[in-house]
Write a structure and sequence with these properties.
- The protein contains 10 helices and 10 strands.
- It is an alpha+beta fold.
- The strands form 3 sheets. It has a 4-stranded antiparallel β-sheet with strand order 2-6-4-5. Strands 1-7-3 form a 3-stranded antiparallel β-sheet.
- Helix 4 packs across helix 5, helix 5 runs antiparallel to helix 10 and helix 7 packs across helix 8.
- The chain is globular and about 55 Å long.
- It starts with 12 loop residues before the first helix and ends in a 5-residue tail after the last helix.
Length: 245
Amino acid sequence: MKPHAEINTTDNRLLNFMSAEDRSFLAPHMRRVQVAPRQVLEEPEAPIDSIYFPEDGVLSVVGNSPTFGPMEIGLIGKEGMTGLMVVLGNDRSPLQTLTQVAGSAMMIGSSELRGAMNRKPGIRDLLLTYVQVFLIQTSHTALSNAANLLPQRLARWLLMCADRLTSRNIPITQEFLSVMLGVKRDGVAVVISELQGRGLIKSERRLISILDREGLIELADGTYGIAEATYERLFAQKQDGGQAR
């Protein structure tokens, strides 16, 4: 597939935070692709060949528990990228990354990205900042999974997913949602019914619509917003040329 220069018109926020010089350096190595639902972008312990910068849609980073089976530990949308292990100097991850909601992404080969980070310190620094934010997100996911009941966890997940879609409508099945939250489907159905009864969401076949965002934030009880605020703070500082603090 022929490389594209659409990196300069991309909706991926991480790429847009780069300087024009750094984007121009990456442009010949990137191309826009479509990612389909359930498409696996990274397999556990397999070499990572390509890195994806989503422009829309949602990707899930999933771990596999011997006791509970697969469970989502992180979300990636147009604020970020896949391949964090490559940014950190590795070539593979113990986790799986797959498409939760289909969309487009700018894709680059892992070797090309490594070369760009070696030659352009600004690219390396920016991507490492995103790694920092993603680690904060996953740590709060672990905290929420351990300390909160399913209604709070579901509220947080819906808010995070809606942020990445920039929409109140989330195309998701209860079956897939049960895998993402690591609970039985019956439990998800009960909580969705509860949130719908409270006027927070509307659930239809393969679609959940957020009706009361502030109500979901209140229900999430402090589990949502820390990683999001950190992202905005750190990248605002980079745009201003300041140092993280």
